[in-house]
Amino acid sequence: MTKNTKQTSGRVAKLAAETLQDSGASKVAKSLAASALAQRGSAKQTGAAMEDLAAKVLKSEKYADDTKELGVSEFLCVRRS
Fold it and tell me: Would the pLDDT of 41 be above 90?
């Protein structure tokens, strides 16, 4: 398996931190944000469950642009075998 060296960008990490502090943010947004922050500065990669959640968010029109941006970030850090 090749090593995935992609990590969450500083801009997305800032968005993720703000999302986690936002009492009005959805559970979905907070889940994506937590995953994005876990990947910042580490070798951690998106797992299958988070990849599925990100896919649902990106296909839906009900989520805010910020939530979709966190979803895109998850796809960039996906573990591929």
Answer: no
CA pair distance 26, 28, nearest whole angstrom: 5
How much is the average pLDDT of 11-30? Answer: 94
Instruction: Report if pTM > 0.90.
Output: no
d(CA 26, CA 38): 18
CB 12 within 8 A of CB 73: yes
Interatomic CA distance for residues 36 and 73, integer angstroms? 7
